[in-house]
Amino acid sequence: MTANRDRRPPVMADVATKAGVSHQTVSRVLNDHPNVRAETRARVLEAIDELGYRRNMVARALVTRHTRTLGVVSFDTTLYGPASMVYGIEQAARAAGYFVSMVSLKTIDTAGVRDALGYLAEQGVDGIVVVAPQRSAAPALADAPTDIPVVAVEGGHDGDVSVVSVDQVEGARLAVRHLLDLGHETVWHIAGPPDWLEVEGRLEGWRGTLAAAGRPVPEALPGDWSPRSGYRAGLRLARTPGVTAVFVANDQMALGALRAFAERGVRVPEQISIVGFDDIPESEFFTPPLTTIRQDFGAVGGHSIEVLLRQLEAGAEWSHERHVVPPRFVARASTAPPGG
Amino acid sequence: MTANRDRRPPVMADVATKAGVSHQTVSRVLNDHPNVRAETRARVLEAIDELGYRRNMVARALVTRHTRTLGVVSFDTTLYGPASMVYGIEQAARAAGYFVSMVSLKTIDTAGVRDALGYLAEQGVDGIVVVAPQRSAAPALADAPTDIPVVAVEGGHDGDVSVVSVDQVEGARLAVRHLLDLGHETVWHIAGPPDWLEVEGRLEGWRGTLAAAGRPVPEALPGDWSPRSGYRAGLRLARTPGVTAVFVANDQMALGALRAFAERGVRVPEQISIVGFDDIPESEFFTPPLTTIRQDFGAVGGHSIEVLLRQLEAGAEWSHERHVVPPRFVARASTAPPGG
DNA sequence: GCGGGAGATGTGAGCGCTAACAAAAGGGTA
DNA sequence: TACCCTTTTGTTAGCGCTCACATCTCCCGC
What terms describe the molecular function in GO for this protein (chains A, B) (predicted)? Predict the structure, then answer.
């Protein structure tokens, strides 16, 4: 355990000399090759320990042609959704013995994603997960590197890549069905920013479910995921006559809407019912606790790594998979029958 | 732009042949070496483009002995604090031309941190940022690799590394001072989990400020950062006579406490004033909007990279720096004079 | 007592790149 | 014209590791 502070770190040859074997034998020990005598192995391990030797993965990667590193491209990891996804990805990757190299984009645009993919490819990552929930990311995915597997999370459906996602349409359907079943005539909607695929899915599920039930479809209110935008939309809904039920595209905006209703003296759920989306850890403690649709971000992250590893093993001939994670309805206290 | 789908990707020598120059000249073009004729450069660039050549950073790293990758070790990046920190770190690193290799630990313990540091060192990262807010991470930092710079964020103060952190004691002082200035006799405290350095700092600031003002110091209530633990603590406070002001160690727990008070019919801020910590994006929309202490996580992340890069440039002889980011008081609607 | 096969170890080459030096090509001055 | 100096390009030798193969031991069976 001698630390050589200023000298160049020891290499395999140093260990070999010290143990009185060839560098190849050291390599064998390090890689758990079976054909090494127990005594030799012990001698090598001792030398490794004494020198404080640590193998150089860069040199190893040069010859093996893989780095055991996966690239992750993601949008704003400050948000709960992407953060949980990336966390799930990282955990699953490391459990499988892979490192994760991260690129978080401030804004998702085709050029940004393309650059990120290019950089990661240069770095020699073995595979890439792209958390690119916006439509504008799709073109970049279409001409992603073809020599390494790429998996998109919540991504475009047209690219030449595998996709793992939550069933957004179904999530919206669950929310709307719940409100209609309570007896509401129709359901309003505060949407997320346009261009997001999740937003499109939720809009589609909301509209479709209302239409299927023969209910009027109000105009969706715009939002940008932030509590503030939910607050503004809530203010508008509070002064719109006839609103009894709202489906909000995420929990943060639902929080803002809750605040707007509170300020306007609109009681939830007595006068207006509200359902969110995501089920962030805070939702359970909102005033009132928020009924919402749970997305299992961790599972999505985990699945994406599973798919990626499968393709990694398959080598050159992998097929594109599509994996859909179901959302779950979580009943709490923000909904009630109309006029409740 | 020919994609060679199945063939091995082109290497520098291929480009050289195609452009009719030596591989060294290709290398010069790629590295912006000044002494290359404009015409030659153009020819090389054209060949690069035609072959779809991409330089192999692994091979480059082997000879240059640096990877332009920084390692980040962090605790649960699902939490807003760590997530924002890591985001700030990643942004700053990439702006400086560095990649980020992530390891998020599920739990922080000495062995986990030590392993993570070891793995990253093997990967050949040029420097490491450790977001290790727990005391138990300190021993691992003490015997961190000595041949590359390591910066701790919110980390132990005894290790042989640079530290960037928010002034927790001052943050707590701001919160308590505010409540005392409003006329409250004393301030109760819902603490975070023990072992966290931030928790210790906030406890110290809370106790110290009360003591300095000659006020009684109640027993701190335990919490674990989660809204649920804040809820439980809130329930206890609601049935404790004489409580008029509470300083909560983070905003999530404050949310839980708010919920508990609402359920027990305790009005905030009229009957109890409450101050949080962190200023998460949601706080402004709590019921009521939460007065809190803002931590600039992004700035902390950015500073940590600044320090790291400075040490990277300094080469072998770097000195250990200590950088403290001030917290900021954010006034909203959850506090009022007692009996307000 | 000796060929043969399995196990244990060593040898040489090369992954794709950069650093250091060597060589060739221009361009001004004595 | 010869000379030197600068600019441009080429050549060679590794970086630290693994792979493929060669070699050397040892033990078994006939």
Answer: DNA binding
Q: Which residues of B touch A281 (CB under 8 A)?
A: 226-227, 252
Would an 8 Å CB–CB cutoff place A235 in contact with chain B? no
Main-chain dihedrals φ then ψ at residue B21, nearest 5 degrees: -130, 180
Interface of A with B in 142-161 (CB under 8 A): 146-147
How far apart are alpha carbons A327 and A176 in whole angstroms? 14
CA of B21 to C1' of D7 (A): 17
Q: pLDDT tens-digit profile of B176-209?
A: 999 999 999 999 999 999 989 999 999 999 999 9
Inform me whether the C-beta atom of residue A84 falls under 8 Å from chain B C-beta atoms.
yes
B245-295: pLDDT as tens digits: 999 999 999 999 999 999 999 999 999 999 999 999 999 999 999 999 999
Is B123 part of any domain? yes
In contact, A232 and A259? CB cutoff 8 Å: no
Q: Are A196 and A204 in contact (CB under 8 A)?
A: no
Is any atom of nucleic acid chain C found less than 7 Å from the CB of residue B4?
no
What total of structural domains would you count in chain B? 3
Domain-located, residue B238 = yes
Give per-residue pLDDT as tens, B150-172: 999 987 666 678 999 999 999 99
- Residues A182 and A265 occupy one common structural domain: yes
Answer with the residue of higher pLDDT: B3 or B18. Answer: B18
B110 touches chain A (CB under 8 A): no
Q: What is the CATH number of the domain that holds B106?
A: 3.40.50.2300
Identify nearest nucleotide to residue B35 by CA to C1′ distance. D8
**pTM given for the model:** 0.91
Co-location of B24 and B42 in the same domain = yes
**Measured between alpha carbons, how far is A125 from A99 in angstroms, rounded to an integer?**
9
Task: Say how many CA atoms lie within 13 Å of B30 toward its Cβ.
Answer: 19
**A235 and A301 together in one domain:** no
Residue B290 resides in a domain: yes
- How much is the pLDDT for B340? 65
Which residues share a beta bridge with A330?
A292
